[in-house]
């Protein structure tokens, strides 16, 4: 009997220790905290269970979560890391019928507002950024999460977050490129049979009016809703296979090119132009021409390498690399031109040219050959030229100035006799004062050597110094014109294609 009494007392005490489910009667007189505690009591609410709704046919419906994204800060794209930083307000809205208090508290018209403690008592959809590198809640967790429960059970959760997101940029047209950077939000543990994400109908993505970027211009943004099919090879969703709802929005950026024009393109044009100054120096002035060519080359390499340090090491060729490579070839070409004319200047033998055209001059210069009467003309020239123009070895003397004596050009025709050539050479008299050589005498189609017409089979003898100066004169025009053509093709490709 005694044992039976002890057992009855134990059972009664156990029943007394279990609290009863709190009532929702007279909810209008309850405080906001009291009403929330009763609504989320364990007998009515399970925060591990998603809201359950049914269709008219009795089928269980997934939870519709509506998302809004407000961007108030965005950092410039970091090309070397292929990422960008963003500060935004993420707002989630969904309906939870278990939190409806319109009927139990009809006089309460205002929603229940709270911060992180309120959110911790509720079921919240787990949404993550699929292309994030890092993300966190801004400020303190207590203040930067706003939770609102409306009388009809609509829950709105707003969080201020900062995230570092990947952006797979295409830099083929750098620095004239346009980038499209996307942000993807996906459901973590609930597939499409349990949860579906939607963008808000009105202004789902908005940007702060004071948002400005220093290197880019924000052109436009657009959003989309998709479904991600996950299998066992995709562990983003906890290794659970299925279809998961996904939201994405893409931002279109165009790069500001003013900095690159002023700091890279214009200086590189000037450096290429400076390398052409060597064409106005005489071919035997090796020290200044070598110094000018090497200094411009080293300066340009330094400029190009400084620009390339801010870019990732991609496998494809960028537009900026095409520009720098083209400019490097022009500077290198001026160095090769000096080496070529300097080699010709130091030759000992004159060159016979069949015609005073560029093709014949270059052909005779690259492969010099003796004409049939070259030996005779050389003997005639040696015996008749003055001592001021002929050295002891028989070759004309030249000063190391930009001013050059006007030496005779001997023309040998097939039908002329030897005495006619001797009379031509002996009748030539040099001026008392040396004059500058007229480069126009060597232009195509305008050459003359004392007579207006040159016979069809005539040959003209040019000294190595005259050929060197003729090549420099041609380079002064050929290099700038070629650079203009290169610029025309380059800028046409940049802004049209």
From TrEMBL:
<feature type="transmembrane region" description="Helical">
    <location>
        <begin position="477"/>
        <end position="496"/>
    </location>
</feature>
<dbReference type="InterPro" id="IPR006202">
    <property type="entry name" value="Neur_chan_lig-bd"/>
</dbReference>
<feature type="signal peptide">
    <location>
        <begin position="1"/>
        <end position="19"/>
    </location>
</feature>
<dbReference type="InterPro" id="IPR038050">
    <property type="entry name" value="Neuro_actylchol_rec"/>
</dbReference>
<keyword id="KW-1071">Ligand-gated ion channel</keyword>
<dbReference type="InterPro" id="IPR006201">
    <property type="entry name" value="Neur_channel"/>
</dbReference>
<keyword id="KW-0675">Receptor</keyword>
<comment type="similarity">
    <text>Belongs to the ligand-gated ion channel (TC 1.A.9) family.</text>
</comment>
<keyword id="KW-0812">Transmembrane</keyword>
<keyword id="KW-1133">Transmembrane helix</keyword>
<dbReference type="InterPro" id="IPR018000">
    <property type="entry name" value="Neurotransmitter_ion_chnl_CS"/>
</dbReference>
<dbReference type="GO" id="GO:0099095">
    <property type="term" value="F:ligand-gated monoatomic anion channel activity"/>
</dbReference>
<keyword id="KW-1003">Cell membrane</keyword>
<feature type="transmembrane region" description="Helical">
    <location>
        <begin position="290"/>
        <end position="310"/>
    </location>
</feature>
<dbReference type="InterPro" id="IPR036734">
    <property type="entry name" value="Neur_chan_lig-bd_sf"/>
</dbReference>
<dbReference type="GO" id="GO:0005230">
    <property type="term" value="F:extracellular ligand-gated monoatomic ion channel activity"/>
</dbReference>
<dbReference type="Pfam" id="PF02932">
    <property type="entry name" value="Neur_chan_memb"/>
</dbReference>
<dbReference type="GO" id="GO:0005886">
    <property type="term" value="C:plasma membrane"/>
</dbReference>
<keyword id="KW-0472">Membrane</keyword>
<feature type="transmembrane region" description="Helical">
    <location>
        <begin position="264"/>
        <end position="283"/>
    </location>
</feature>
<dbReference type="Pfam" id="PF02931">
    <property type="entry name" value="Neur_chan_LBD"/>
</dbReference>
<keyword id="KW-0407">Ion channel</keyword>
<dbReference type="InterPro" id="IPR036719">
    <property type="entry name" value="Neuro-gated_channel_TM_sf"/>
</dbReference>
<keyword id="KW-0732">Signal</keyword>
<dbReference type="GO" id="GO:0005254">
    <property type="term" value="F:chloride channel activity"/>
</dbReference>
<dbReference type="InterPro" id="IPR006029">
    <property type="entry name" value="Neurotrans-gated_channel_TM"/>
</dbReference>
<dbReference type="InterPro" id="IPR006028">
    <property type="entry name" value="GABAA/Glycine_rcpt"/>
</dbReference>
<protein>
    <recommendedName>
        <fullName>pH-sensitive chloride channel 2</fullName>
    </recommendedName>
</protein>
<feature type="transmembrane region" description="Helical">
    <location>
        <begin position="322"/>
        <end position="345"/>
    </location>
</feature>
<feature type="domain" description="Neurotransmitter-gated ion-channel ligand-binding">
    <location>
        <begin position="32"/>
        <end position="256"/>
    </location>
</feature>
<keyword id="KW-0325">Glycoprotein</keyword>
<keyword id="KW-0406">Ion transport</keyword>
<feature type="domain" description="Neurotransmitter-gated ion-channel transmembrane">
    <location>
        <begin position="266"/>
        <end position="491"/>
    </location>
</feature>
<dbReference type="GO" id="GO:0004888">
    <property type="term" value="F:transmembrane signaling receptor activity"/>
</dbReference>
<keyword id="KW-0813">Transport</keyword>
